[in-house]
Write a structure and sequence with these properties.
Layout: H1 9-26, H2 28-46, H3 51-81, H4 87-115
Helix pairs in contact: 2-3, 3-4
Length: about 120
């Protein structure tokens, strides 16, 4: 069975926006990271950084949001597959959280390096 709909630009955009709305309604970590991004991105623009530094900070800020969404998707799939406590389910969720932690760490390291 193929559960993959035919590609259609407007329908796929609609699906993506539905995912964003779902994340905004249900994912507190995503909301927090989005709020941080909305505060930090204007700072990135207005602080006296080189253009390459601004690009790196902007990309890592967006990367945090992307990784958080992927982590949420992993958590949703794990919850769909099993409600039992299973070592592989825990591992999948922990690995997704680790990816978010690394993305945030990378972003913070760049801020420290560029500010110093």
């Amino acid at each position: 069975m193929n559960n993959k709909p035919k590609y259609h630009l407007f329908k796929n955009t609609k699906y993506a926006l539905e995912g964003l709305i779902h994340a905004l309604k249900t994912e507190s970590s995503f909301k927090l990271e989005l709020l941080a991004g909305l505060i930090l991105i204007p700072l990135i623009i207005f602080l006296d950084f080189e253009i390459i530094e601004k690009a790196a900070l902007f990309m890592t800020a967006i990367l945090v949001l992307i990784i958080e969404l992927v982590n949420s998707a992993i958590e949703n799939v794990v919850d769909l597959v099993t409600h039992e406590i299973h070592p592989l389910a825990k591992s999948a969720k922990d690995l997704g959280s680790t990816a978010v932690m690394f993305a945030i760490g990378l972003h913070l390291i760049l801020w420290v390096v560029f500010l110093l």
